[in-house]
Amino acid sequence: MGLMKANHVFFLLYLLHILLLDVAAWLTLLVFGTSFMPFLLCAVLLSAVQAQAGWLQHDFGHLSVFSTSTWNHLLHHFVIGHLKGAPASWWNHMHFQHHAKPNCFRKDPDINMHPFFFALGKILSVELGKQKKKYMPYNHQHKYFFLSECPHPTQGDSLERGC
Ligand SMILES: [Zn+2]
C-alpha cells in the first residue's frame, strides 16, 4: 500500500515552514524592536519552530525519510544540531533506550526526566508487571492500553525500585 514510503515533498515543505517561521521570528524583532509585543510574538513563533523541529528531527533520527541512512543522518544533524541546538548522538543514545523500554522507570530516559509529567495514566505498566497484577503481555499492549486501571503508587514506594 506504500504506507512506509515517505513523501519527500511533505518533508521538504515541513522543513521549509520551520525555516520560514524562524526567519519570521528574527524579522519580527528586526522590524518591530524588542518591546513586549514583538518579544511575545517572537516567543510564539520560536515555540512553534522548536515543537515542529522536534517532530521532524525524530523522523530523521529514526532514518525513516530517505532510503539511505546518510541523508537521514545529514538532515538529522542539521535539524537537531542547528535548529534545536542539541547533539544528534545524544538524542540517538536516549531515544534508543526509550523505544527499547517505553515508559519504564530507570530504563526509559524520557520518563527519568520527570516521571509524573511524561508518564501517561495512573500507573505504569511495569509496576503492574512487577506486582503480577492484571498481567497482560507487552507485545499486545497496543490493543489493551486503555484498559489499565489501578491505584496510584505512593511516592518513594514502588516508583523507586525501577524495572
Ligand atoms: Zn521514536
TrEMBL record:
Keyword Calcium: no
GO MF terms, alphabetically ordered: oxidoreductase activity, acting on paired donors, with oxidation of a pair of donors resulting in the reduction of molecular oxygen to two molecules of water
Domain spans labelled Fatty acid desaturase: 35-115
InterPro entries the record matches: FA_desaturase_dom, Fatty_acid_desaturase
GO cellular component, one term: membrane
Keywords: Fatty acid biosynthesis, Fatty acid metabolism, Lipid biosynthesis, Lipid metabolism
Domain of life: Eukaryota
GO BP annotations, alphabetical order: fatty acid biosynthetic process
Transmembrane segments: none
Official protein name in the record: Fatty acid desaturase 1
UniProt lineage: Eukaryota, Metazoa, Chordata, Craniata, Vertebrata
